[in-house]
Amino acid sequence: MHHTHDPNQVRTAVLTLSDTRTESDDKSGQLIKSFLEINHEISAYRIITDDTHLLSSVIQEWVENSSIDAIVCNGGTGMSKRDITYNTVANMLEKEMHGFGEQFRQQSFTEVGPRGLLGNAIAGSIGTTAIFALPGSSNAVSLAMNELILPILPHFVGELRK
């Protein structure tokens, strides 16, 4: 069922956090783009290092960009010292979609066992921009995109526009 405010196409931005990846070997970032390109527009794509200030700055820049409705980040959500994505995004969100992280971890646990609990995926919004932050593994990206993000993306953006 199509809701009045739901866009047919969502303008998205993809952000990879990695101290080592380049565009040519950013498998997860490219995978996110390939999922989104089927029905949505890619307005921006970047790879940045695992740096809190840089991540905050890019997200803020993209939130202020009227040609971006949703941001999908990948990488930096784990438990190592360099993993800053989850806390940075959590501190920036105005509203958190709690069920997203809960469902992601539950489905990850089903697929990979207790290691799935280490994937601190999070989603929510800043103003009228939807934000998703995913682990950097290709399996985690595929799970999140297929099962959680693509099925709700137009409706989520529509809700934010109300």
Please describe the topology of this protein.
Layout: E1 11-17, H1 27-37, E2 41-48, H2 52-63, E3 70-74, H3 85-92, E4 95-96, H4 98-112, E5 122-126, E6 129-134, H5 138-161
Parallel strand pairs: 1-2, 1-3, 3-6
Antiparallel strand pairs: 4-5, 5-6
Helix pairs in contact: 1-5, 4-5
Keywords, please?
six-stranded mixed sheet; 6 strands; 162 residues; 43% helix; alpha/beta; Molybdenum Cofactor Biosythetic Enzyme, Chain A; globular
Explain briefly what this protein structure is.
By secondary structure, this protein is α/β, with parallel strands linked by helices. The chain has helices at 27-37, 52-63, 85-92, 98-112, 138-161, and strands at 11-17, 41-48, 70-74, 95-96, 122-126, 129-134. It is built from 5 helices and 6 strands; from the N terminus they run E-H-E-H-E-H-E-H-E-E-H.
Largest sheet: 6 strands, mixed
Q: What's the CATH topology name? A: Molybdenum Cofactor Biosythetic Enzyme, Chain A
Strand content: 15-25%
The total strand number stands at 6
Query: What is the straight-line distance between the termini?
Result: 17 Å
| Helix/strand structural class | alpha/beta
Q: Please mark out the parts with pLDDT under 50 across 5 or more consecutive residues, or reply none.
A: none
Spatial extent as radius of gyration: 14 Å
CATH architecture label: 3-Layer(aba) Sandwich
| CATH homology superfamily | MoaB/Mog-like domain
Helix run count: 5
